Amino acid sequence: MTERSPFFDEMYGFGEQARQPYSDYNSWFSQEDVGRLRKKSEQAEAFFRLTGITFNVYGVEEATERLIPFDLVPRILTSREWATLEKGIEQRVRAINSFLHDIYHRQEILRAGRIPVEMVAQNDAFLPQMIGVAPPGNIYTHITGTDLVRTGEDEFYVLEDNARTPSGVSYMLENRETMLHMFPELFSRINVRAVSHYPRSLRRSLSSCRPTICDGPPTLAVLTPGIHNSAYFEHAFLADQMGVELVEGHDLRVVDGRVAMRTTRGYKPIDVIYRRVDDEFLDPMTFNPDSVLGVPGIMDVYRAGGITIANAPGTGIADDKAIYSYMPDIVEFYTGEQPILKNVPTWRCSEPDAFKYVKENLEELVVKEVHGSGGYGMLVGPAASKKEIAEFRTKLEAKPGNYIAQPTLSLSTVPILTKAGLAPRHVDLRPFALASPGGVEIIPGGLTRVALKKGSLVVNSSQGGGTKDTWVLED
Amino acid sequence: MLGKTAGGIFWMLRYMERSENTARMIEAGLRISLTRSSAADSEWSSILQATGVAAQYFSQHDAIDGQKVINFLLREKGNDGSVMANVELARTNARMVRTALTKEVWEAVNECWMTLKSQLSRPIKQQDLPEILTSIRQRTAFVRGSLHGTMVRNDIYDFARMGTFFERADNAARVLDVKYYILLPSIMHVGTVSDNVQWETILRATSSVRAYQSLHDGEFDPRKIARFLILDRRLPRSLAFCYHKMQANLSYLADDYGERKESHKMVDQICHKFDHSTIDQIFEYGLHEFVTEFLAESHALGRQIERDYRFYE
């Protein structure tokens, strides 16, 4: 029995027939026994546990390692759909890098009045320490994870540009491995574009951003906050897959003007560091003095051209939720083109008219904290109780500038497998883009997150979301 | 490789070996308690001493009780040297050095932890004990096997092997340290059944009964037992065997890195002693003194390896 979606469903559209991208999958699925598939689903879970694909939950004593639930119905995109997304993301990533360079140098966009000065000057995500710094290769966002949502056949929106340290790519890779392992017959029937080259591409891309001081093959390392970090699995996974060292702050120190790691043979300089530590904790001498996760003095080395930090410090100004609403202007300003991907209309509560509208329409809107992430601290109006809305209103009125609001989008659904068969659930998509002086490479696919609760729009893993394998079909 | 990784993998294998050794000692204790219950209490007591947790045990329990000791050694939260605690530490280290391990080794460690966590989640009933002990031996062997079968022979492997042999020798020496007096001539009443059993327990605690019997015509003799456990390089749990392995792995490291360190001198000295001592000389010198000295030298070597290869800042 298959439950139908009242929203645009990527498998069934608005009707009963499978959409074209799903036609092969659907004919396979209709021959399958749901019982067998449920069993497969349990196998997948055991496989994830053994591999250790878990994430840590803060503040929970028992069972601190949890699995992100995996659903075995893939999210399928045609090559035509993908081509548009790819172009749109590339355009956006190029614009973001130009914007970051500009904002930390001449600030033309502010002079041109396209963005109000205070949006940048009074923004915590703007790092004055980055003014005048030229990152090697002039790349700021080596890795971007653009969050997209879909509302119809050709309707895609960018929800967020994750330009700091986007996570989730290990799930993209392991979800595919799991699917290949469970359903080899599907992949011989349907031509799906590979994603497994991501670690190689990442290594190549990071290497090509090495500092000029490095004249041989660069030494790369992944910097993790440590095994208690919620994304530690991913840090270890990427270091392992790239064949580079996984380091923590206490493995590193500045030696002779270079950031060096303590090896069994002494200190060895690092050329490119892929850090999964936030700006604030990167260097206790420059930022948070209490940080033990970073490397004292790394910013001095960076400014002197002794190391590449990926992503560059200060990229947060580009994925700030208040700046987000200016993205169409930013794209146009730097590329001279119309944005290929749409922004979600956004009300900035810092502006009186917008604030008034938001206050009067809380029941209809999604309201987010400007600096929030992970689905915390946001209000989904249509799903909230009167009491929740009233409480949120108090917070909003106390500090309007802290919030933006967006219409509640009718997010597309993709079916998940439940006990009763297929049931539609809302999804989003996070493709991963690698930027280097040679260009922008986008891995065909990405991470599809799915809200497992019926009707829920919150896909974050910390809030009970799951993931799916994402297929981009070959032509 | 990172100094931290070298230390992490060295200790990961030490923790694995330690949990295996504890399980082997429990097996020996269990056998005695089933065959000669009068000797059981003193056997449990020596096991607590040899594993270094006697003080912890008596701070939480009034007296020796077989079932309590077994639970304490295997799983009790109040024992930070329990099998479960060691497996947990081994896995934490494996996570920390994940990038230095093959997928197979990591999965073997992770599965060992998952299996034992579930088997040791509740107090152990006597009837479940054999199955659990078997499981510990098999799971740890699985880790060793995947290490052997899948890891590249480089510095990472050397540190892993050194962790295994360092811990194994340490364990055998601790058993000898606690039980040396059984082997001394002063309390030797040749040929009585009681002594045969006593001697046998030393071999059992190091899982060497069968090996001993097949190489010594089945006769228990304290001097031969001591020689076997200390000097016989055919026995993979003897001190000499383990230290020659340590010496070999350290010398691979020296070849690899093109540098000999203080650790190399120290391991050479220890091996030299094994190569040039007879068991009669050791007894003449004092078995207990010999073992105590070895434990001190081994401890010093452990510290030196840590420094030479920058495990810590």
TrEMBL record, chain A:
SUPFAM superfamilies found in the cross-reference section: Glutathione synthetase ATP-binding domain-like
Gene3D superfamilies given in the database record: 3.30.1490.270, 3.40.50.11290
Record-annotated Circularly permuted ATP-grasp type domain positions: 74-451
Pfam families: CP_ATPgrasp_2
Protein name, per record: Circularly permuted ATP-grasp type 2 domain-containing protein
TrEMBL record, chain B:
Protein name as catalogued: A alpha-helical domain with a conserved ER moti
Classification via InterPro entries: ATP-dep_Glu-Cys_Ligase-2, DUF403
Domain DUF403: 1-309
Domain of life: Bacteria
